[in-house]
Write a structure and sequence with these properties.
The complex is a heterodimer of chains A (113) and B (115). Chain A is mainly β and 113 residues long. Helices cover 0% and strands 44% of the residues of chain A. In chain B, strand 7 and strand 8 form a beta hairpin. The chains are: A mainly beta (113), B mainly beta (115).
Chain lengths: 113, 115
């Protein structure tokens, strides 16, 4: 079962920051938080991942709370092309389970003009 | 280059046909995955290969038969499918199976319709 909880949908105005929350209250110490997005009819696209520290790359920033029970994906200047389903995934754990990427329901982000 | 290539992009097959989906990556990745995605649902893991050996089968029916001929290729053989098997089939790969921060990259998928 997915270990994360996300809002079903969110809207964001074009040019504004999109802040997508994710709860993962049962996360273990060796588990990573991954974010992917899926634009309609395409394969999931990797965005960013982190363990404890905040992370930033050319696409987004990932803010993880100190207790690691929640995180926020930030798209700093959302464009219409960022309209997609965003998945927050907890990955890691035991040797036999570690590679699994188990998707939850995700957040459908609509960026509006 | 983070490309995973899947062919064909679209496939229509009858319930008595035998067909295959193909996946290729040239990133030197040693773990490869098959996912199935129904409309408006998240992707579901089907199989995981690690170093060309099947590591995980998520209780997938035997009408789906995976094969990993070498470290770059992954096939999914299809036989006697049902209309409810119509879905987007996604292939993915990662450097290896270790439970660490090691990114999984997805292909664009193969749309399968069973008639």
């Amino acid at each position: 079962d997915a270990k994360t909880t996300q809002p079903t949908s969110m809207d964001c105005a074009e040019g504004r920051a999109a802040n997508l929350p994710c709860n993962h209250s049962t996360i273990s110490g060796n588990e990573y938080v991954y974010w992917y997005r899926q634009i309609h009819s395409q394969g999931p696209q990797y965005i960013i991942h982190g363990l404890k520290n905040n992370e930033t790359n050319e696409m987004a920033s990932l803010i993880i709370t100190e207790d690691r029970k929640s995180s926020t994906l930030i798209l700093p200047h959302a464009t219409l092309r960022d309209t997609a389903v965003y998945y927050c995934i907890v990955r890691g754990g035991g040797v036999n389970q570690g590679g699994k990427l188990i998707f939850g329901q995700g957040t459908e982000l609509s960026v509006k003009p | 280059d983070t490309e995973v290539t899947q062919t064909p992009k679209h496939l229509v097959m009858g319930m008595t046909n035998k067909k295959s989906l193909k996946c290729e990556q040239h990133m030197g990745h040693r773990a490869m995955y098959w996912y199935k995605q129904k409309a408006k649902k998240p992707p579901e893991l089907m199989f995981v290969y690690s170093y060309e050996k099947l590591s995980i089968n998520e209780s997938v029916p035997s009408r789906f038969s995976p094969e990993c001929p070498n470290s770059s290729l992954l096939n999914l053989h299809l036989h006697a499918l049902q209309p409810e098997d119509s879905a987007l089939y996604l292939c993915a790969s990662s450097q290896d199976w270790r439970p660490s921060g090691n990114t999984i990259y997805f292909g664009e998928g193969s749309w399968l319709t069973v008639v």
